[in-house]
Design goal:
Elements (H helix, E strand, L loop, with lengths): L15 E10 L5 H18 L1 E3 L5 E4 L8 H11 L1 E11 H16 L4 H10 L2 H4 L24 H16 L15 E19 L4 E16 L1 H4 L3 E2 L6 H11 L11 H8 L4 H4 L2 H7 L19 E2 L10 H7 L8 E8 L18 H11 L7 H27 L13 H5 L3 H8 L2 H24 L7 H17 E2 L7 E2 H8 L1 H21 L12 H16 L9 H32 L15 H9 L1 H6 L3 H6 L1 H18 L12 H18 L11 H16 L1 H12 L10 E6 L22 H4 L6 H23 L4 H18 L2 H11 L1 H8 L5 H18 L8 H22 L7 H21 L4 H27 L4 H28 L5 H29 L12
Parallel strand pairs: 1-4, 1-9, 4-5, 9-12, 10-11
Antiparallel strand pairs: 2-3, 5-6, 5-8, 6-7
Helix pairs in contact: 1-2, 1-3, 1-31, 3-8, 4-6, 4-31, 6-8, 14-29, 16-17, 17-18, 17-19, 17-29, 18-26, 20-21, 20-22, 22-27, 22-28, 23-26, 27-28, 31-32, 32-35, 33-35, 34-35, 36-37, 36-40, 37-39, 38-39
Length: 1025
C-alpha cells in the first residue's frame, strides 16, 4: 500500500474527501437526541480539517491537539486517508434547529456548546409554559395577554438568539474570515407559510396562479475561491434571522404560535439585543433570504410561518438539487445521513380488507394522512441519480477497454474558426451519423441556457407561459440566422455553439477532473499486495492503468515514492482545473444575474459586460408583448435582429479580421488559457518535490483526453442531458437512529428504552434534566457508532475505534454515580483494553459485552415522571389553556363556556398543588383550617340533630363535611404522590391520564370551533348560537 506520508510535507496524504449531506428532522424534545448526533458530526469535521498551503495543497491539521472523540476520528481519517466534510444540511421542525447551529459552527469555526447548554438548561417544561413565570428571567420581555400558545414562543426565540450570540462571543467573525472546515456550505430550513404565497403556474397557453405554502429558507457560505467574493450568511448581523428560521421551523402546532418577522423586532428591543441589532437597517439586508416575498401584496410582514413539518417533514429534495453544483480538489466519497430519533415500526394491523367507515375515512383525511410523509420517493430519486452516474461511468470505462490503440481515435473537432464554419452535414461525413443527435442536443441545450439567462436579465421568471413564449422567440431567431446544411446562406449552427455553448466547456472540465479522480483512486493500489485488494480496489487499479496506457503515455512508477509524486502532480493539476471551473462559474453567474438589464451601466467596470447590458435593453420592451411579437412578422424580424445583436455582444463572430470581443468570449478565452497552462508544464516549477518528467507524463496523458473530449462527450451527453447529476460519485444513504446503532443496546430487543424524549408524544425530555442529558448522550453514542460503522468495514480496527469513542463519550456524559458504577462493572476489561498497545479481538469482545451488560442491567435512569413537576406543569397548562380559550372567545363565542371552566379548573388545581407540597407554609395553614372545618361541620351536624334531623342546619353540615372530605382526600392523594407513595401511584397515574385526555379533547374542540367559524359545522344546541 502506498505510504501515508506526503513526499513533500511529511503529513499524511489526503487521498479523498468524504462529504456528508445531512437531513435532520424530528419534533419537539427529540431534537435533543439530534443535538448529540450533530456534536459528533462537528467533531468529525474538526478532527481532519487541514490548513491550506499557498498552492492550494493540504497542510498541517487545523486542530493541533484533538480533544474528546476528535482523537478517534483523526485515527479514522488517517486509516482511510480521508478528510471529512459536512457541506449540505437540511432541517425541519425542532430537529432543524440543530442544523442551523451546526452550519454556523462549521462556517465560523465556533463551538456548539451553546446549543447543548440551551437544550439542557432551557428545555425545561416549567420554564416554557406560557404564563408569567416564563418571562420572569427575560429582560425587557412582557407577557402578551391572552396567551396564543401553550408554551412561550417569545422565550423560545429569545433563547435561540441568545445562543447564537453566545457562539460569536466577544470576537464575531467578519465576512472575509475563511472557514478551515468547509469551502462551500448550503443550509436549507423548511417552514410553512400559513397565509400562502400567490405564484404563477406554468401552462402552455395561459397563466394560472395558486398558493404556495411550503417555504424554505436557504443560507449559504463560500470562500473567495468558490464564488469570487466571500459569501457568508452566518455572520452575527444575521443571527436574528437565523433564529427566526429556527423558531419558524419548530413552531409545533398549539405548543408554539406561528412567527412573523415583526416578532423579531419586538425581541430586538429587549435586553442587550437593542445595542447589537439595529432592526431597521438589518431588515433590508435580510431580503435576500426571502426573495419571493416582494411587492405590497406579498410583503413578508403579512405572512406567518409555522412548523416546517406541516408540509415538508422530511426535506431530502434540497440535498439532491445541491449536489450538481459541487466540485472538489480531491476525489469525493459522498454520503447522506438522515437522523430519525423515533423510527416508525410496522403496525400489527391484520386488515380484513373491510372498507373504512365514515369516522375512519374522515380521521384519515383530516388528521393522520396529511401529516404522514414518506421518504421513499426522495430516496428513489437518489437511486435514479446513482444509477445514471454508474451507467455513465460504465460507458466511459467500456469505451477505454474497447477502443484499441490510440492511433485509431480521430482528433475530434477542428480548432477555432475552422470548426465554427463547418456545417453539420460536413461533420457527419467525417464522424458518422451518430454525431447528428449529439449536435442537435447541444444546440437545444445552448438555446435553453441562453433563454434562461435572458429571462433572468430582464426580470422574467424561468417558468410559465411567458417564459415559454420567450423560448419560442429564441428558437425563431435561431431558425432565421443559422442552418445545419452546407450551401445554406445562413450561418452554421457550429458557429452558434462555438460562440455561446458555455456548458460544453463546463462538461469538459468536469470530464477531466473525473478522470483525475479515477487515476487518484487507483494509484494507492499500484504497489499493494494484490491478494489483499478487494475486488473493487482491483477494478479501480486496472481502470487507472488503462486510462494511463490508452493516453499514449508511459508512467514510470517503480515504488511508492514515485507513486506519491504522481499523486501530487495529479492533485496540483486538478486544483488548477478547479480554479478554471470556478472562473467559469463566477463569470457565468454574472451573465445570469437577475435584473441585470436594469443596472446602471456606468456602475459596471467591465467594458464587455457593459456592452451586453446595453444590448439587452430592447428585449425589456418586448417581454410584455411576446405573443404579439411572435404573431407579427415585422415585429418578429425586429426582435430576432435584437437577439442576434445580443448574442454578438456576448461573443463576436470569428474570422472577421478583427479581434474577437464579448464578455462570454473573454470568459471562454480566460478559462481555456488556464486549462492550457495547467496541462502545458508552464507551472511545473510550482511543484517542489515533483520531478519534471513526472509532471510531463501526467500533463501529456491529461492533454490527450482534453483534446479528444468531444468524442467522449458525444457518447455520454445524450445520457446526462437535462439530468442534475453534479458530482460523479454515487450517494450512499444511511440512517442514524436508536434502532440502527446496536453496538451497546439493541433498541428493538431491549426491555429498556434508550430515549426518554419519546414519551408523552415526544415531549418527554422537557420534564427532567437528567432525561435531556441521557438523550444527548445517546445521540453522541449512536452518532459516533453509525459514522464509524458506515465508513470502515467490519474489522479489528473498527471494533477498537468504536470502543475508544464509546468510552470517551461515556466519561464525558455520565453523571458521577453512573460513571463510577460503569467503571466498577467493567473492571479489568477496561484496564486491559486501555493499556494494551494493540488490543486483541478477545479483549475487545469482552469489553463490549461488559458495556452491553451494564446498560441492560445496571444503568440507573429513573423513568418515572417527577410528581411535583408533572402536576405543577399540568395545573399551569390547564390554566394557560383556559386563558387561551378566553382570548378565542372574542372570535369564537362557543369557546367562552369551556374557557370559563378550564380557567377555574386550572386555578383550583394550582391551589391543590400549593397546599399539597409537604412542609410548605400553605400546606400548614390548610391542615390547620381543615381541622377547624371538621370540628365546625361536626358541630353543625350535632346541632341539627338536636333541632330535628330534617332541617337546613344539618343538611348544610353534612354537605360541608362531604365537600371537606373530598378536598382533603384530593390533597392527601396529591401529597402522597409528591412524596412518592407507591400505593397511590396507580390512582394518580389514572388522574394524569385523564388530564392528558382532557387536554387532547380541548385541542379537538379548538379544531371543531375552527370548522364552525368556517361554516363547515354547527355548534351543538346546548351551547347556544
Amino acid at each position: 500500500m502506498m505510504a501515508t506520508q506526503s513526499s513533500t510535507s511529511g503529513k499524511p496524504i489526503v487521498e479523498k474527501e468524504v462529504r456528508f449531506a445531512v437531513v435532520m428532522y424530528g419534533g419537539v424534545s427529540l431534537a435533543i437526541y439530534i443535538n448529540g448526533v450533530a456534536q459528533e458530526l462537528y467533531k468529525l469535521v474538526r478532527a481532519t480539517a487541514r490548513e491550506r498551503n499557498e498552492d492550494g495543497s493540504s497542510g498541517d491539521y487545523v486542530i493541533k491537539n484533538p480533544e474528546s472523540s476528535e482523537a478517534v476520528y483523526r485515527k479514522l481519517g488517517e486509516l482511510l486517508r480521508s478528510r471529512f466534510v459536512v457541506d449540505i444540511l437540511s432541517g425541519t421542525s425542532a430537529g432543524g434547529i440543530n442544523a442551523v447551529f451546526l452550519a454556523k459552527a462549521l462556517a465560523n469555526n465556533q463551538p456548539m456548546s451553546q446549543l447543548e447548554k440551551m437544550w439542557v438548561e432551557q428545555g425545561d417544561i416549567e420554564l416554557l409554559i406560557n404564563d408569567k413565570k416564563s418571562v420572569a428571567d427575560l429582560a425587557g420581555i412582557q407577557m402578551k395577554p391572552p396567551p396564543t400558545s401553550l408554551l412561550n414562543s417569545q422565550r423560545m426565540y429569545y433563547r435561540l438568539l441568545e445562543a447564537f450570540d453566545g457562539m460569536d462571543g466577544s470576537a464575531p467573525k467578519s465576512k472575509d474570515t475563511a472557514s478551515p472546515f468547509v469551502d462551500e456550505l448550503d443550509l436549507y430550513v423548511t417552514a410553512t407559510d400559513i397565509r400562502g404565497l400567490w405564484l404563477p403556474v406554468p401552462l402552455a397557453d395561459a397563466e394560472a396562479h395558486e398558493y404556495r405554502y411550503r417555504t424554505v429558507f436557504r443560507f449559504y457560505h463560500s470562500t473567495m475561491d468558490t464564488k469570487e467574493d466571500w459569501s457568508q450568511d452566518f455572520l452575527k448581523a444575521n443571527n436574528p434571522f437565523l433564529a427566526f428560521a429556527a423558531r419558524a421551523t419548530s413552531s409545533f402546532p398549539f405548543a408554539f404560535e406561528p412567527i412573523k418577522l415583526e416578532d423579531v423586532g419586538l425581541v430586538l428591543k429587549a435586553g442587550n439585543f437593542v445595542q447589537n441589532y439595529p432592526y431597521v437597517e438589518l431588515r433590508k439586508s435580510w431580503e435576500r433570504f426571502h426573495k419571493d416575498y416582494k411587492g405590497e401584496r406579498d410583503n413578508i410582514d403579512l405572512h406567518s410561518f409555522g412548523d416546517g413539518g406541516y408540509l415538508d417533514n422530511k426535506p431530502f429534495s434540497y440535498i439532491t438539487e445541491t449536489l450538481r453544483r459541487r466540485r472538489a480538489d480531491s476525489p469525493v466519497d459522498r454520503r447522506l445521513f438522515y437522523i430519525e430519533p423515533a423510527p416508525e415500526r410496522q403496525q400489527n394491523n391484520t386488515s380484513d380488507g373491510a372498507r373504512p367507515d365514515a369516522v375512519e375515512n374522515v380521521a384519515a383525511a383530516l388528521l393522520s394522512l396529511p401529516r404522514y410523509e414518506t421518504i421513499r420517493d426522495d430516496l428513489l430519486q437518489l437511486k435514479a441519480r446513482n444509477d445514471l452516474i454508474e451507467r455513465t461511468n460504465n460507458i466511459l470505462r467500456q469505451i477505454e477497454r474497447t477502443r484499441g490503440s490510440v492511433g485509431k481515435l480521430k482528433v475530434w473537432g477542428a480548432s477555432g474558426s475552422d470548426w465554427s464554419s463547418q456545417y453539420l452535414d460536413e461533420i457527419i461525413s467525417d464522424y458518422g451519423t451518430g454525431y447528428a443527435a449529439y449536435h442537435q442536443l447541444r444546440v437545444a441545450d445552448t438555446l435553453d441556457e441562453f433563454a434562461v439567462a435572458v429571462a433572468r436579465n430582464i426580470g422574467m421568471e424561468e417558468e410559465g407561459r411567458t417564459f415559454n413564449l420567450l423560448r419560442q422567440l429564441v428558437e425563431a431567431w435561431k431558425r432565421r440566422n443559422y442552418a445545419s446544411n452546407s450551401g445554406d446562406p445562413r450561418y452554421s449552427e457550429n458557429e452558434l455553439l462555438f460562440r455561446l455553448d458555455l456548458t460544453w466547456r463546463v462538461r469538459r472540465l468536469y470530464f477531466l477532473t473525473r478522470l483525475i479522480d479515477d487515476i487518484l483512486l487507483g494509484l494507492p493500489s499500484f504497489h499493494a499486495d494484490e491478494a489483499k485488494l478487494s475486488p473493487a480496489d482491483q477494478e479501480q487499479k486496472e481502470y487507472a492503468q488503462e486510462l494511463i496506457k490508452k493516453s499514449g503515455a508511459a508512467w514510470k512508477i517503480p515504488d511508492e515514492t514515485a507513486g506519491n509524486q504522481y499523486f501530487e502532480a495529479l492533485s496540483a493539476i486538478k486544483r488548477q482545473l478547479n480554479q478554471a471551473y470556478m472562473e467559469l462559474r463566477v463569470r457565468g453567474r454574472k451573465l445570469r444575474a437577475r435584473n441585470l438589464a436594469v443596472r446602471d451601466v456606468n456602475s459596471i467596470d467591465d467594458a464587455d459586460l457593459r456592452s451586453h447590458v446595453q444590448a439587452i435593453q430592447p428585449l425589456r420592451e418586448v417581454k410584455d408583448r411576446l405573443m404579439e411579437t411572435l404573431q407579427d412578422e415585422e415585429s418578429l424580424a425586429r426582435a430576432c435582429k435584437d437577439i442576434e445583436a445580443l448574442s454578438l455582444s456576448l461573443s463576436s463572430r470569428p474570422g472577421q479580421g478583427e479581434k474577437p470581443t464579448g464578455y462570454l468570449y473573454q470568459t471562454m478565452t480566460v478559462v481555456s488559457r488556464m486549462c492550457r497552462e495547467a496541462l502545458s508544464g508552464a507551472n511545473g516549477s510550482s511543484l517542489p518535490g515533483v520531478p519534471q518528467p513526472v509532471l510531463k507524463d501526467v500533463q501529456d496523458s491529461l492533454t490527450f483526453y482534453y483534446d479528444h473530449f468531444e468524442y467522449f462527450d458525444m457518447l455520454t451527453f445524450p445520457i446526462t442531458y437535462a439530468t442534475p447529476i453534479g458530482e460523479s460519485d454515487v450517494v450512499d444513504v444511511y440512517r442514524i437512529s436508536p434502532e440502527d446503532a446496536t453496538g451497546l443496546v439493541d433498541a428493538r430487543k431491549s426491555s429498556r428504552p434508550k430515549l426518554a424524549g419519546t414519551r408523552l408524544g415526544n415531549f418527554g425530555a422537557f420534564f427532567k434534566k437528567e432525561w435531556r442529558q441521557n438523550d444527548i448522550m445517546w445521540g453522541r453514542l449512536d452518532g459516533a457508532e453509525r459514522i464509524i460503522s458506515t465508513l470502515l468495514p467490519e474489522s479489528r480496527a473498527r471494533a477498537e475505534l468504536l470502543l475508544r469513542v464509546w468510552l470517551t463519550i461515556l466519561k464525558e456524559n455520565l453523571d458521577p454515580a453512573n460513571l463510577k458504577s460503569l467503571h466498577d462493572r467493567l473492571g479489568g476489561a477496561r484496564e486491559d483494553f486501555e493499556t494494551a498497545e494493540e488490543p486483541s479481538v478477545e479483549q475487545m469482545a469482552k469489553l463490549q459485552e461488559a458495556l452491553q451488560t451494564y446498560f441492560e442491567r445496571h444503568y440507573a435512569l429513573d423513568l418515572e415522571f417527577s410528581p411535583q413537576t408533572t402536576l405543577n406543569a399540568m395545573g399551569r397548562s390547564i390554566s394557560v389553556m383556559g386563558s387561551l380559550l378566553e382570548g378565542l372567545g372574542q372570535k369564537y363565542p362557543g369557546a367562552q363556556a369551556p374557557a370559563f371552566w378550564l380557567t377555574r379548573l386550572g386555578k383550583i388545581f394550582m391551589g391543590v398543588m400549593q397546599v399539597a407540597v409537604p412542609g410548605s407554609l400553605p400546606g400548614l395553614f390548610f391542615q390547620h383550617w381543615m381541622k377547624v372545618a371538621y370540628v365546625f361541620e361536626v358541630f353543625l351536624i350535632v346541632a341539627g340533630a338536636i333541632l330535628g334531623f330534617n332541617n337546613t342546619v344539618m343538611r348544610f353540615g353534612i354537605f360541608s363535611l362531604l365537600l371537606t372530605l373530598s378536598v382533603d382526600l384530593t390533597v392527601r392523594l396529591v401529597e402522597g404522590y409528591l412524596k412518592g407513595s407507591t400505593r397511590l401511584m396507580s390512582v394518580v397515574r389514572g388522574a394524569a391520564k385523564f388530564i392528558v385526555v382532557f387536554v387532547l379533547l380541548a385541542v379537538l374542540a379548538l379544531i371543531y370551533l375552527g370548522l364552525v367559524f368556517l361554516k363547515i359545522a354547527e355548534l351543538p344546541a346546548f351551547l347556544g348560537t
